[in-house]
């Protein structure tokens, strides 16, 4: 199961100074404050981020109440929702990878929105910036039910569900369980052939907590970020990438939610792939060092109704590294009219 972090676009014209990049905020606790334009539930470390696209998208994150059968009260669930909902086209719902957040979409989301799509970026239960103070379960079943209740409460129409990395497993699991909620599927660098975290289910709790402590560590974050992309910019921007990918880990319930997911066994959708009846787009970076693009051909072959597109000179996260190419592929997949508008 790959660790997926987020990054800034390598084509940004602005390179922050060392003084700006490494300034220290007053606190890393939750509560950036409305005076900064950020929602108050984000960790204060968001103030240290210099990535303009990340800042813009972070300011649009909100929490919507989602009622589920496994939580006493509604879960305030984080997402970025469209400025205007439509009725004529299917909404596009963007998931994210393992241990990530909706900030993963900060470059592609604006492109899709500017092209006229109704785009949602939704945090998967247990990750992102939702309020999990009551510690609801974060196993596969809970993630699936939470996404369904989010969909039925706010989206309410068949959606184009987009899943990068482990988000592809989330999308397959959801589409097989609730086919009526999905019109099409897009998989990006899909992590769908892992057999979950079964090896951890028999260990005492301190073992996965130790693993989560390592997962949060700076050396592992640096390594994972380096592996996720084909091209790495200078050290200052690279460190900013790591800060963005680490932001959601500062929420006080992140460790408990991640351990709960790991102890539950994680995702194993290998047998469900051939059950997917929806039309699918499989996108893959040709230079993916986390999940071999050989799996792209296997997934394309096993899905009953799929097309395959490769993104050249690109690593594991094409929607961050090559956002314009990904946006064009999605627009072409959703409909030619939207693609023409984008051009």
Automatic annotation (TrEMBL):
InterPro entries found in the cross-reference section: AB_hydrolase_1, AB_hydrolase_fold, Epox_hydrolase-like
One GO MF term: hydrolase activity
Occurrences of domain AB hydrolase-1 (ranges): 92-327
Classification via Pfam families: Abhydrolase_6
GO CC annotation terms, alphabetical: chloroplast envelope
Gene3D superfamilies from the UniProt entry: alpha/beta hydrolase (3.40.50.1820)
Protein name: AB hydrolase-1 domain-containing protein
Organism lineage string: Eukaryota, Viridiplantae, Streptophyta, Embryophyta, Tracheophyta
């Amino acid at each position: 199961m790959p660790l997926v972090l987020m990054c800034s676009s390598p084509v940004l014209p602005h390179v922050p100074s060392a003084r700006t990049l490494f300034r220290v905020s007053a606190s890393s606790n939750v509560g950036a404050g409305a005076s900064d334009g950020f929602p108050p539930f984000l960790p204060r470390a968001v103030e240290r981020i210099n990535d303009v696209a990340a800042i813009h998208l972070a300011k649009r994150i909100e929490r919507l109440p989602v009622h589920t059968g496994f939580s006493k009260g509604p879960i305030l669930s984080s997402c970025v929702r469209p400025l205007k909902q439509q009725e004529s086209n299917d909404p596009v719902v963007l998931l994210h990878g393992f241990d990530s957040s909706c900030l993963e979409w900060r470059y592609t989301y604006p492109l899709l929105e500017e092209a006229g799509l109704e785009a949602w970026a939704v945090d998967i239960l247990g990750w992102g910036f939702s309020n999990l103070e009551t510690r609801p379960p974060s196993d596969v079943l809970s993630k699936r039910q939470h996404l369904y209740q989010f969909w039925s409460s706010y989206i309410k129409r068949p959606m184009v569900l987009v899943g990068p990395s482990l988000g592809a497993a989330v999308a397959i699991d959801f589409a097989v369980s609730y086919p009526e909620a999905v019109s099409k599927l897009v998989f990006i660098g899909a992590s769908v052939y892992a057999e979950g975290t079964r090896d951890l289910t028999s260990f005492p709790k301190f073992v996965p907590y130790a693993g989560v402590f390592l997962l949060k560590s700076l050396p592992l974050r640096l390594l994972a970020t380096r592996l996720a992309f084909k091209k790495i910019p200078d050290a200052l921007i690279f460190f900013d990438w790591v800060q963005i990918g680490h932001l959601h880990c500062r929420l006080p319930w992140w460790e408990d939610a991640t351990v709960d997911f790991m102890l539950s066994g994680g995702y194993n959708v290998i047998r469900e792939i051939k059950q997917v009846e929806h039309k699918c787009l499989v996108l893959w970076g040709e230079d993916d060092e986390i999940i071999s693009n050989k799996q792209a051909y296997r997934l394309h072959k096993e899905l009953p109704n799929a097309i395959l597109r490769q993104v050249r000179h690109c690593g594991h996260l094409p929607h961050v590294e090559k956002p314009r190419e990904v946006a064009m592929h999605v627009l072409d997949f959703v409909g030619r009219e939207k693609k023409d508008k984008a051009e």
